[in-house]
Amino acid sequence: MVRHIIGITLTILLSGCMVNSANRVSTSDTLLLDPSIPENTLTSPLVRQFLSDPEITRLIFAKNEEKLQLDLLVAELEPMVTASSSAGGIIEDDDQGLSGTVQVGLSKDADLSNLFDVKKDIIENDVIISNGELIRALNLKIHAVLVAVNSLTTVDHKIEILQQGMQEYSNVKKLIDKSHQVGVITKGQYLKIQGQLNDIEMTLENLELQKENAKQTLSIELGKNYQDFLPVFNEGLSKIKAASFDKSLDDSVLKLNTAILDNINNNIILEEKSKLWSGAYKVSLSSVIGGDVTGFLGINLSKPVYDGGRSKARIALLQSKRLQAEAEEKKVYKKVDLAFNSQQANKSTAKKQASLFSEKLEDLLAIKEDLEVRQNSGKAQLEDVAQNHLDIANVKIQVIEADSQLLNSKIDYILLQQRAYDYILTGNEMAQIIK
């Protein structure tokens, strides 16, 4: 007796084919770095430069990933359809038999506790948090560039002042050398003047080093063609100098703090709802070939009975995180308050310093005129003339340094406010980055 059994099974899975949801989110138009978006739509070279930063790029992709999570959440709520069939035959000598079954089933999450809305809110808050982190990274980059540009400008001004002072000092130094040779100036006086000259040269070398460091920072942050972007940042520094500050924070900070707290609360809600009933609707039809069709319509329900205190522990942990987030929010406002008061004090001090420096410089210039008259008549001490040139240069450098420090404190303050971008990028440029 020869018996052959021949069979075939076919299973088809259709997920989400039954519902064309009007709320489905299309993310293809939200991916800023999607290959389908032409690069030439990013019209600003500065924006392209910022988007080449690895950290900013990472945060943009992280934000877009959060948006894709929403598509996934919507899909998981839609029905899942499965179809399967099996058919086979038995061949025994001259007898042949054929049998088979066909089954179709549909299942859909019942969402009895309305978890979808909570999860959707969490994802939307995650996008807001990602936006806040992206703006923070952008502000840090802009802050580093602003500080470097301010340093570069300050150093250039100092070098210019010192080189001018060195030129005037050198003219007097020639006369001092001759006076020393004939014994008019003592060796101690001569060495003191020579030491002052050496100090100036060392200061110039240090300034050149600072200049190179600033250039290196700019090259790292803006690329080798950083000079192309200097006009934008110099204009930004001018705006910062003229700006009047308040204690407010950028909207992105407020939204970020709110989103963090909302998500902690949402996760607490999810934990509490995890103790409730959950279920899924089930529909199925099956038939044996040549037989009747049978069907099933119902719902599967489940409810946790005992979890060993896991949910309670997770809720306690989330409540602790909420307290930390609230404390961190208060800390930020306190830092802004202190920094604002410091800004006001710095502004007042800068005015007083400017007045003192102006008076001191005016006195030194008057002394210079007097020394020139006395030098022409042979009555001035050459070391006094040389010292006067140094004193004038030092006061001018002190003025430059004080202005630079005040500007740096303002740059730090706008970083604390998370508004550094507002002084550099236009609204359209920001829209190309934050989308």
Number of strands: 5
Terminal CA distance reads 74 Å
Largest sheet: 5 strands, antiparallel
| Unreliable stretches covering 5 or more consecutive residues | 1-7, 16-38
Instruction: Report the CATH architecture.
Output: Up-down Bundle
How large a portion of the residues is in β-strands, by DSSP E?
5-15%
Overall residue-averaged pLDDT value? 83
* Spatial ordering of strands, largest sheet: 1-2-3-4-5
| Cα radius of gyration in angstroms | 38 Å
How much helix, percentage-wise, in residues? Answer: 55-70%
Q: How many independent structural domains?
A: 1
List the topology elements.
Elements: E1 3-15, H1 45-51, H2 54-77, E2 80-92, E3 95-109, H3 115-181, H4 187-222, H5 230-242, H6 251-273, E4 278-288, E5 293-302, H7 310-376, H8 382-416, H9 427-433
Antiparallel strand pairs: 1-2, 2-3, 3-4, 4-5
